[in-house]
Amino acid sequence: MIPSVSFIVPALNEEKNIEATVDAIIAAVDASHVKEFEIVLVNDGSFDKTGQVMHSICAENSVIRVLDNQTNLGVGASFLKAVCQSRCEYVMMVAGDNVASVSSISDTISNLGGADIFLPYISNPEIRPIFRRIGSRAFTQLINLLFGLHIRYYQGAVLRRSLMSKINVFSNGYVFFAEIVVKLIKNGATYEQGGIAHTKAPHNNSSALKIKNLLRVVKEIYIFYVDIKKSVKTG
After folding, report:
1. What CA–CA distance (Å, rounded) separates 73 from 52?
2. First CA to last CA across the chain, in angstroms?
3. Mean of the pLDDT values across residues 87-104?
4. Of 120, 141, 190, 230, most Cβ neighbours within 10 A?
5. Residue 106 shares a structural domain with residue 150
6. What's the CA gap between 224 and 230, in Å, rounded?
7. Who has greater pLDDT, 38 or 232?
8. Residue scoring higher pLDDT (120 or 234)
9. How far is the C-alpha of 127 from the C-alpha of 26, rounded, in Å?
10. Any residues with CB less than 8 A from the CB of 222 and at least 6 apart, and which?
11. Contact (CB, 8 A) for 7 and 40
């Protein structure tokens, strides 16, 4: 039996995709043997009807809850807010734009129950644009080099919820999952990695390679690198 899972779905202006995202999660759970689950939807300050759609879905299903951010806090802050209010053993983020397939969600949760962290990596990376692959690989190699790890992919980690109270997280954008994973591993958390096949997303464009976002990524990496080095010296 797969342990209980809290699916966290941050969304900004995703009124057209949020219902399909929820349907995909429920279908993935039905295809698996999850002991217990909940879906925590986070409306991250949307100015379209995302919040209304979320509350409508919530009213029809008792396993779904909605958290409303009055302003846009960002994906990292939204995820951490939901973690604090989640109830299940593991927490898994699912993007609210309906790019995660039923099979990829189901395959991911089927790997839970052993290690503290499950790190899914894309087993068919050719479905992604070449520049996105290059950027993702460069980011992963940089984090591995800085912290002496051998992780294949940091994004989309599924975490044992109880461990999150032991770390402070400063990143809020692309870097936040890497910061969480590195800090948990440095604190002794166990992890497993596994390849998950993904389907090609209909709108698979990433803004991570824009100059402004690259500068933010570098800044966030520096901040949590310094934080980890300080904790090592004082530990």
Report:
1. 19
2. 38
3. 94
4. 120
5. no
6. 10
7. 38
8. 120
9. 25
10. none
11. yes
Domain, as residue range, for 184: 125-156+163-188+201-235
Check: CB of residue 154 under 8 Å from CB of residue 177: yes
Can you tell me the distance from the alpha carbon of 133 to that of 35, in angstroms, rounded to the nearest whole number?
35
Question: What strands lie across the sheet with 64-69, from one edge to the other?
Answer: 64-69, 37-44, 5-11, 90-93, 158-160, 117-122, 191-196
Residue 120 lies in a domain: no
Domain count for the chain:
2
d(CA 113, CA 47): 38
Question: For residues 175 and 220, is the Cβ–Cβ distance under 8 A?
Answer: yes
Domain boundary among 113, 146, 179: 113
Q: Which of 65, 51, 48 is nearest to 13 (CA)?
A: 48
169 in any annotated domain: yes
Residue 93, SS3 per DSSP:
strand
Instruction: Give the closest residue to 140 by CA, choosing from 169, 168, 177.
Output: 177
Q: What is the pLDDT of residues 31-82, one digit of tens each?
A: 998 889 999 999 999 999 999 999 999 999 999 999 999 999 999 999 999 9
The Cα 35–Cα 3 span in angstroms is: 5
User: What is the SS3 assignment for 169?
Assistant: coil
